[in-house]
Specification:
This protein has about 160 residues and is mainly beta. Helices cover about 10% and strands about 35% of the residues. The protein has a single domain, classed as Endonuclease - Pi-scei, Chain A, domain 1. This is Hint domain-containing protein.
Length: about 160
């Protein structure tokens, strides 16, 4: 892996994750109506617990993340008792934060931002994938926030605003 400082030096905070997809790593446990299940075991039609109640997954895109893709490793409990275990996400995966970070960094009670913007170098670290990995992008037909390993993550659905 490339040293974190060299990666971070090349990116501005607003750019963190700009070129990486919205996806989650294999093995990440997602909260479904049948309990927490690894994302690898989900199928379109399965119902997930979201901030708006139970929603059916319309599509699960398998996304190939190339070696060198910017990822963020989050230590267990780094975000106010979350996540439930150590995990990693592509730097562009959007996450909802509702703790002191949202207030201190954005002046709001909660925000949905690219996880790359939370890098602190100690508990939330930026690095690169050493090899190609297959990740999963969940789509509901509209933007949703779902639960994965205790984190609130945004779906891969694009927000479309009528002209």
């Amino acid at each position: 892996m490339i040293e974190m400082i060299s990666i971070a030096a090349q990116l501005r905070a607003d750019d963190m994750g700009a070129g990486t997809p919205m996806a989650i790593a294999p093995g990440t446990c997602v909260l479904t109506l049948d309990g927490a299940l690894p994302v690898d075991h989900l199928y379109p039609g399965d119902r997930l617990v979201t901030r708006h109640g139970a929603r059916r997954i319309e599509a699960i895109d398998r996304v190939t993340l190339a070696a060198g893709t910017a990822i963020v490793s989050i230590a267990q409990n780094a975000l106010g008792g979350r996540p439930e275990r150590d995990l990693w996400l592509p730097a562009g995966q959007r996450i909802v934060i509702r703790d002191w970070r949202a207030k201190a960094l954005y002046g709001q009670a909660q925000v949905c931002i690219a996880v790359g913007q939370l890098v602190d170098g100690e508990y939330i670290r930026l690095s690169e994938l050493p090899a190609e990995v297959m990740a999963y992008a969940l789509r509901f037909g509209r933007p949703e926030v779902f639960y994965a390993d205790g984190l609130e993550l945004a779906s891969a659905d694009r927000l479309t605003i009528p002209a």
